[in-house]
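Let us work through a complete example step by step.
Step 1: write down the sequence.
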Amino acid sequence: MAEEKHEIIKEAKEEVEEILSEAVIKEINEFKQTAIWEENSRRHYVEEVALKKGLEKGMKEGLKKGKEEGMKRGIEQGIQQGMQQGIEKGTEKGIKEKTKKVVMNMLQKGMNIEDIVELVEITREEIEEVKKEM
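Step 2: predict the structure and record it as tokens.
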């Protein structure tokens, strides 16, 4: 009988150990899953922060380069437009000066105002202005 009790206790002890072992393994697995989840969360956060910082840095650099390129192109276009306007104004002024000299020469030669209007293609008023400057 003592031997039977001893056998029952031994079996109970083994059963308890098995149950405890399963509980411990289950708890270890839960801790492991939690650790994996936390590690993945940490990595995701770090990657997200790094990506955000990288994007911000890239955007800042892109804006800076874009402004520089825009300024460069704007200056080039401004110079071209300024040169074109200068050429146009200079040409216009040169034509006016040459026309004025031609009209002065014609008036000095005694040409009729109507003939000058027809030949030079200017108005009577413009001829009168040239006359005042003579």
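Step 3: interpret the result. Residues 2-108 form the longest helix (107 residues).
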